[in-house]
Amino acid sequence: MTATLAPFHLAFPVDDLAAARRFYGELLGCREGRSSAEWVDFDFHGHQIVAHLAPDAGDRASNPVDGHEVPVPHFGLLLPVAQWQALADCLEAAGTDFVIAPHVRFEGKAGEQHVMFLRDPAGNALEFKAFADPRQIFARD
């Protein structure tokens, strides 16, 4: 079955809209859309994400995956390997404090992927990953 991918929409809490604008707009290069004093829309590679001012969003949890504690909840993108590497290089050059540093997960197994996790200034977790073989995105052992 072949599916057509549609843009997703995600609203998430932040405690500082100016910091969100710097992180998503300047560091990640997301074009800003509509905004108000309480929220900002960003074009996240064709997807609509909305940073909502919510300073009391609470703590985050994690789950173990391939030897790392993966933050939950999180969101992110699947990128081509070259674009993923360019982003990893940019984030490393900017001194990003990674939750999980750029590396290859499930190496030599079904679903092998390049992956990295970081947090935005409000503590929201983002995952960026890439598959050398996109047919492996939903691969099972």
From TrEMBL:
<dbReference type="Pfam" id="PF00903">
    <property type="entry name" value="Glyoxalase"/>
</dbReference>
<dbReference type="InterPro" id="IPR037523">
    <property type="entry name" value="VOC_core"/>
</dbReference>
<feature type="domain" description="VOC">
    <location>
        <begin position="6"/>
        <end position="131"/>
    </location>
</feature>
<protein>
    <recommendedName>
        <fullName>VOC domain-containing protein</fullName>
    </recommendedName>
</protein>
<dbReference type="InterPro" id="IPR004360">
    <property type="entry name" value="Glyas_Fos-R_dOase_dom"/>
</dbReference>
<dbReference type="InterPro" id="IPR029068">
    <property type="entry name" value="Glyas_Bleomycin-R_OHBP_Dase"/>
</dbReference>
